[in-house]
Amino acid sequence: MHAIRSLLIGAIFITSAIMEPVVVHADTTGGGVVTIRPDAAITTRQGLPNFVGISGDNTGAKGISMNLVVIPAGAAAKPHLHRGYETAIYILKGRVRTRYGEGLCQSVVNEAGDFVFIPADVPHQPVNLSTTEEARAIVARTDPNEQESVELYNRPTIHADCDP
User: Fold this and answer.
1) Which CATH superfamily includes the segment(s) 42-164?
2) ∠16-19-23 over CA atoms, to 5°?
3) Has this prediction a pTM greater than 0.70?
4) What is the pLDDT of residues 11-56, one digit of tens each?
5) Contact 8, 25 (CB under 8 A)
6) Alpha-carbon dihedral sign for residues 59, 61, 65, 66
7) Which of 3, 11, 23, 141 matches a 20 to 30 Å C-alpha distance to 163?
8) With the C-alpha atoms ordered 80, 94, 51, 89, is the resulting torsion angle positive or negative?
9) CA 53 – CA 122 distance, rounded (Å)
10) CA neighbor of 152 nearest in space, from 84, 83, 53
């Protein structure tokens, strides 16, 4: 059973399950500023903890979502792609290898301070290179529904010429 949290914000009464982000400020006139403070992580289709920030559901966003993703020490996301949507990432903490492309044969290593762009429909898999510390990143997508366009990628066997 999930604990329920209720907040009175301006003239809006908002009730959310503990797994949902808390709306800290909502403009009641329509078309104004909305502030979100995530209070708990959810597990994504990719298998990673995700603190939901901006989405169509909680802000009315029409063309963007933005979240904080955590890759635990030594962990990797399930290989996946975002059908029809671009992804922009800012690495806050850690070193992450992103395998990408057909068969996930290509890879790039990024670290805190790097911006990463992943075009729509490109299969990818982020892997935390540390076995002792989590990696954290801010992830923005051109999909306001965030998880709706996520498709798991059943990669073929990695060939010998692929980067391990």
Assistant:
1) Jelly Rolls (2.60.120.10)
2) 45
3) yes
4) 333 333 334 556 666 665 666 888 888 888 877 778 787 898 898 8
5) no
6) negative
7) 141
8) negative
9) 23
10) 83
